[in-house]
Amino acid sequence: MNANALAPKLLVSLTAATLLGTASKAMAETTTETLVLQNIPQQFELDATLEAVNQSTVSAQTSGAVQSVLFDVNDRVEKGALLLEIDNTQQQAALAQAKANLAQALAQNEDAQVLLKRNQRLFRQGTLSQGELDSTSARAKSSAAAVEAARAGVRQAREQLAYTQVRAPYSGIVRARHIEAGELVAPGTPLMTGLSLDRLRAVADAPQRLAQKYHSPQQIQIRVNGTLIEPTKVTRYPYADNQLHSVRIRAELPANTQQLIPGSWAKMLITTGERQAITVPKTAIIQRSELSAVYINDNGTSKLRQVRTGNRYQDRVEVLSGLNAGDTIFVDGYDTLARLKSAKQSSEQLAKQQQ
Length: 355
Hints:
The protein is α+β, with helices and mostly antiparallel strands. Helices cover 35% and strands 37% of the residues. It contains five helices and 21 strands. Strands 2, 11, 12, 13, 14, 15, 16, 17, 18, 19 and 20 form an eleven-stranded antiparallel beta sheet that branches. Strands 3-10-8-5 form a four-stranded antiparallel beta sheet, with no helix packed on it. A four-stranded antiparallel beta sheet has the order 7-6-4-9, with no helix packed on it. A hairpin with a 2-residue loop joins β17 and β18 (291-298). α1 packs antiparallel against α5 and α2 (89-125) runs antiparallel to α3 (130-162). The radius of gyration is 40 Å and the shape is elongated.
């Protein structure tokens, strides 16, 4: 064959070999990890619900017609903010009467105390009998007690007047409004329902066999949207549910935890000990719909192997099946996939050029 005809083919072959060698070198430079058995926490995962620590219904503590409603559903309110006003005509009149009763009691008590001092002086002079002195002393004590009763009446009247201005017990959101302006309310009538987003807790029902293994708050973690949160306080109920026969566990989350919504789902992780397992970096997992896989290094060749994953531990994922101790995997699965695709495209282009 003519040497000039062989030259282009030889050049293509040399170029293909060079590109394939470059791809192999790039794969060799990819970070790998040889798997070993590790001690990991023995954890059980329970479905939990987030709820507000402070959620309540504010009720009327006095009677009257609702004069104005200042907040509506979904409005944010600050602690101490005025929610609504009740007509205070009756309460103002009651306070005025209580003040008048106090003034009358003070005047009567002053007269009784002056009379007591005078009769004590007359008794010492011998011009007043013991019986008259005792009667005067009793009236003085009675008038002093009447003053205290009148002062208590004033305090009660002022408190009833303060109840006509209903204020928020904590900062939060109004969930429901149970009254309208103009309605007549009495003590105990529901007015507004609200909750606070500042403090949340996760609540889960644990099987009895699992609840018996709980001994300290350090065993509990809450996972929300892939983030692990350490609770500040954990309460295990001292009794089981009559129907479900489960034990409720309640874990309070740190204050002002961002992007958490009451009523949403969470996971409660309960650690009961340690066990040996194989874990891989989270970056090594390639997710395709419901399937998970990793790239292993089989004598210098990259092979995709399907795996079944379990719990996550910070930046690592437990592998339940598909891998063994001693296997070598590529740490960055998607980077490995991109490198293989690039090498494949280069090979296809070279094949076309050879044709």
